[in-house]
Each structure stands twice: as C-alpha cells, then as structure tokens.
Design brief:
- This protein is an alpha/beta fold.
- It folds into 2 domains: about 130 residues, 3-Layer(aba) Sandwich (Udp-n-acetylmuramoylalanyl-d-glutamate--2,6- Diaminopimelate Ligase, Chain: A, domain 1), CATH 3.40.1390; about 120 residues, Udp-n-acetylmuramoylalanyl-d-glutamate--2,6- Diaminopimelate Ligase, Chain: A, domain 1, CATH 3.40.1390.30.
- Helix content is about 35%, strand content about 20%.
- The strands form 3 sheets. A 6-stranded mixed beta sheet has the order 7-8-10-11-12-9, with helices on both faces. A 5-stranded mixed beta sheet has the order 2-6-5-4-13, with helices on both faces.
- Helix 6 crosses helix 10.
- The N and C termini lie far apart (about 70 Å).
- The model has no long low-confidence stretch (mean pLDDT about 95).
C-alpha cells in the first residue's frame, strides 16, 4: 500500500527541499498537511503534469486519481480569497478527494531532474552547473552550462532546437549570424536580472529558456546574450515525463499517467494583400 507520506518522502529523496530558490518550494497544496494525516491517505492513481490547468484537473477527476503532481503550483503566491477558475479547480480537487502536490524548484536543481532531462533531450554537451541564490543554501544549481553538438550559428541552432523539441517556432533575440559557443539552459520562466548578469560574467553567449519578461530580455540583448524562448511549459515537459517513468519503476503498484500541458501561445505571420 502506497501512502501520500511515502510519495512525499520519495520526492524529497530525489529532489531535496534544500534546493529551493525564489520561494518555489515543494509542498502539498491541497490535501492532508500533517505527516500523520498523509500516512493515512492511500494513493493508487497519480496524474503528473507541468501545470495544474483546468484541463489537467478535470482529467485527474475523470480518471479518479488520488494525487495530482505538478511542477508549477496552483498558487505561486499567498492568496486571501479564491474565485473564478481557481475556485473551480479547488472544488474539483476537494470534491473528488484528490491531493495536489507541487514540486517547485528543487526538481529543477536535482541531479537527473527537470533541467538535466531537457539538456539530454537537446543532446548538448554539459560542461558545468549554473548556480543561483538559494532560499536555504547559499547557492543551488538551477541551470546547466552546455556546448553545442557541432559548430553552428544561431540560425542553424534555432532549427536544431525546433527539431529536437518538436515545436514549429522559437522566439529569438540577438544576432542570428553569431557562432553558438557556451549555452545556458534554464527551463521555465525564472531568469531575472541577476541571472543575466552572472551569465555574462561566465561568458555565456546563448540562453535557452521558457520565457522572459521584456525588461530582462532587453538587458540580455544589451549584454550580448542571444536568447531562445521556447514558450510556456515546453522546457519543463521533458522533466515531468521523466518523473512519470521514475514513478512507474519505483511504485509499480500505482497507475501513473502523464498529461501534456499545452502552450496557449502560437506564432502567426501575415502577408499584406496586394490591391
């Protein structure tokens, strides 16, 4: 019999809580909060996803899951009231006795975790870690420093990324003719000003990430760092798929399903009509 506490302890062993940064800790968001309550909560079906969207929560309830595990949280910040889609999601989870657990940043930093899974998908040569300020430790290895598979410019590397990830387009900022040298892989949307400054200090020439805020993107360009933004969830999905496989091996008695988180943004181009 597998309990919620057993799953929490397993996740802590592969993604230690000490690796948290920017307040993105692992935690049970919906469900039993004490160890004694978690020990009494039996789990037999799990749904794993990057983001707990309404579609993902509905899928979990339809599949009669006991536990939803996501990388991104339901609530990234403390709230004093719940309404709209948030209220619908919480009601679906609680009504169907589904606990919700967010992995947060420890799964990014972990060895063979979310970031490493993305590096392996891209088949890049890893040459080092990229550390950021941690919440509990001085620094934690959130990103990876890599080299390209061969000599190429950024135009060719853009095509390489779309082929490896299986997407139609990427958002690029910089100079397409520049040669790709040292690359920083940093999944999700966590890169901020300190990360760009440190990347420049480490002679990073290219950044591959999920998405950036406009001011951070502008700073990166001013610092000479070329940027590839692959969109929401794309950089995180490989790590969550890996987690699904790990759970299937570690808990063969459980039914574990992965649900893809679909990026809502699409790139469109228009041609002017001739008159």
């Amino acid at each position: 019999m597998t309990t919620l506490l057993g799953i929490v302890k397993y996740l802590e062993s592969i993604a230690p809580p000490r690796l948290v940064f920017k307040g993105l800790e692992s935690r049970v968001e919906v469900g039993p909060q004490t160890e004694s309550e978690q020990e009494k909560t039996t789990i037999n079906r799990i749904v794993i996803a990057t983001y707990p969207s309404g579609r993902v929560v509905t899928k979990a309830s339809q599949d009669k899951a006991n536990l939803l595990i996501t990388h991104r949280p339901l609530f990234p910040f403390a709230v004093d009231r719940i309404s709209g889609l948030d209220l619908i999601r919480i009601r679906l989870l609680s009504k169907n006795y589904i606990s919700s657990l967010t992995l947060g940043s420890p799964w990014m930093c972990a060895r063979d975790g979310l970031t490493d899974a993305f590096v392996e998908l891209l088949e890049l040569k890893r040459v080092g870690d990229f550390s950021v300020m941690g919440d509990l430790e001085e620094v934690v290895p959130a990103g990876r420093l890599c080299l390209p598979p061969s000599v190429m410019n950024h135009s060719r590397f853009a095509n390489y990324l779309t082929e490896k990830v299986g997407i139609e387009s990427v958002t690029f900022s910089g100079d397409l003719d520049d040669e790709v040298k040292q690359i920083l892989i940093f999944p999700g949307s966590h890169v901020d000003v300190p990360e760009i400054v440190e990347a420049k200090n480490l002679n990073v020439g290219s950044l591959v990430t999920g998405e950036l805020s406009p001011e951070v993107r502008l700073l990166a360009i001013e610092e000479g760092v070329n940027i590839f933004e692959l969109g929401s969830f794309v950089t995180e999905e490989p790590g969550m798929r890996r987690l699904r496989h790990q759970f299937s091996l570690e808990f063969p008695d459980l039914k574990v399903e992965f649900v893809e988180s679909i990026t809502p943004t699409k790139s469109l181009s228009y041609k002017k009509e001739r008159h």
